[in-house]
Every structure is written in C-alpha cells, then in structure tokens.
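re the bet — no i am not wrong, look at it urself. input seq straight from the record:
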Amino acid sequence: MRQIRIFFIFLFVFWIFSFGKTEAGVEHNLTGWAWSENIGWISFNCYNDYNGDGILENHCTGAGYPSNYGVNLNLSTKIFSGYAWSENVGWITFNESELSGCPQPPCRAWLDSDNRVYGWARALAYGSGWDGWIRLRDTNYGVSLNPSTNEFEGWAWSDMVVGWISFNCKNQNSCSVSNYKVYLINQPPSATELRESFQYCNVYAGQGLMSLSWKYEDPENTNQSAYSLEVQQLIGDSWQTKVLCENISTTGPHSGGIGTSAVLIKSNPTLALCDLPSYVGDIEYGRLTRWRVKVRDGGGTWSDWTSWSTPTSTAAHAYPWIDFSWNPQKPTVGKIVQFTDLSEVYGGAKKSSWYWTFENADPSISTNQNPTTTFTSVGSNSVTLRVTDSSGFWCEKSKTVTSFYPLPFWKEIPPIFFKIRNFLASLVFSKF
C-alpha cells in the first residue's frame, strides 16, 4: 500500500510538472479514446469528443485550456509520434526519441503494410518498480488499423499499473454502452500560391477573362473534389463581393497539383451565385480585385478559406473585339478582294489604327481600315487583322480565306465527226 501511495504522489508531481507540454493537437491525425480497466480513459488528442455527442471539441492551447497534445501517424513513414494523456498515469509518449531502451527493439511505434501496429509506447510517470512500457503487439494480441473505417481495433498491454488497453468498443461488444474508439482524423487539405492571369482578347465581345489558380495539397494525398470561390472588388471605400461560387464539384488535382477556375469580366456585371465550374460569375473593368478559395478533399473535408490574394487591377475597359468580312466570299486568283473591318472598341475609346497581313497576296500588308488585295495562288490563305484603340489596347484575329482558279472560258463547237461528214458530202455533191 505504501508503494502505491508513493507512486501516485510521484504521478501527481509529474502531472503538475508536465501539463504544460506542447505537442500540436489539432494538427495531429489521431483522436478518440482508449480504455483500460486499471487506469480508465486515455485521450489521444486534445481535439476530441469530450461530451459524447460525436463532435470534436477543441481543448487545446488557445481554446481556454492549458495543454496542446496529440498522437500522429506519419502517412509516409508510417511511424507514430506525439503524446496521449491519462488522468491517472499522465503523459504517454509515442516519440521514438523517448522510447530508447525498450524491452525489444526496434524502439518505436509503427504501422506495417498490413495495417498492423507494432512497437511500443511509454507512460512517462514510470517509477517505483514500474517501467511504463506499453506493448502494442505480441503473438496473441495487438492493435490494427481498419482502413475501411480508419478506426484502430484490438488490444495493447502494459505490466503492473495499466494492464490491458482497448482501442475500440468493438473489442468488448460494448459500443451500445460506451461508443469509444481511437481513429484517424481526415486532415483538411490546403490551397496555397494563389495566382491570377488576365485574357482580354478573343473571349467574347466586350468581355475578358480572369483565370485563377492555386496549389492544392492534402495530407492523405486524395484528389480535390470541390472548391468554393469568392471574388471581391473595391467599390468606393469598401470591398464588395462580385462572385460567390459555393461547392463547385471538380475532378481536381492530387496533392501538389494546380486547381483552376475563371471569372468573366464585363462592363455591367451582376452579382452571381454560381453552380457550374465553366461559368462562375462576372467582375467589372477598372477596379482593384482580390479573391480567395477553399478546397474539399476526396474524403469530404474542407479547408479553411485562404487569405485574400494581393489586390490586382482589371483593365480600364474592354479590349477591341476583332471581326472582318470579305467580298467575294470565294475569291479567284488575280481578282481584287475587298476586306471590311467589323471590329468594335469599348470604354469611350475610338479605333486608332489597323494592321492587315495577307498570305499569298499582293499587297501582303495594309494599314487601311478597309483594304483590297489580290491573291496570287490557289489554296488556303491566312488573313490577320490587328486593331488598336485610342487607349493603346489592341487585339488581333486571323481567318482563313480560300482562293480558287478562275472559271475557264469556253466556246461550243461541233464534234469532229460532223466536220468529216460535211466535208465528204461536199465532195460528192460537187461532181454533179
């Protein structure tokens, strides 16, 4: 009895000394509870379900609680690290650096390719003849990860104080009484490296395109399955939402891949609530613009909104929309073809200059608004028009014009047979 009292006095001192230990809780990917009949509940994360309602509550540092802890499974190396907590034995470490001298090396905790847990954990309040070792697998027991549920199942064992540790209520068919388990949290993905680019030519008449991209990453390496997007513009002294797209489904990239979206730029847009990834709304010309995104991984977990992008300005107004026609529609080689500029300019600007190029034609270049030219060979010919407005904005567009041989000149003549017949007849009748 005296030995037990000494042990718990030591444990109480250790608890006071170590309660400030900081190992990130929310960032670790194991949570839930294990159960020991000797020492009671063992928490695997300060981000845990504390009231049994199935919702994780944040009892970590910064949430009004003094400690920040958790156990993590590195999904690449399959090695465990971090701390679990028991009110009766204090900190339980999974850190390899604190497991040296274990009864049977290797002195670490890890998951093998068959999802079986091997190795050791250790209660750091060991002493008074108790070594604190917790064995995670032996010949007749062990802990395993069920990949279909992401739950850990089975038993671990510790001599003396702790005894058997159950990682799941399924072990005892007791889930109807106490639905406890230790399980992997689906860690949220992230979106970083926000970038945008602008296309002002050849989108639609009077419109441009703002293309957005971000780097998608997910700890579980699942595909991006959806995103939400918000675009704001500075109107007066306040930022106003111009585009709000929510839960846009996508077959997006793996971790490290690039997610993309786009918004149209219009002169008179309206607030858009979008539901299609191919069209997500309109923003205005001539305004500072910023945007943010959040992404959903293949497991259904959303990231937080990113920070707002660095504001960039859209162009002062739309760029020229280029179009032209020609007559005749099927020109022949050597004949004059008339070209007509049908382009439009915007924002109060006027057409300032024209630059035409004609393939296989004479002349091959013109700066007239409505020039003529003559094609010199038969076939497909590229014709390009560049229009610059009085703001210095320019765009160009190419079309293919097919030139043909002229139609042949012909005169109807009688067949040679009739000529011979008539000649012979003249000889015969000339004798009489």
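see?? The first strand starts at residue 30 and ends at 36. told u. also The chain has three domains: 2-184, 190-313, 324-403. so pay up
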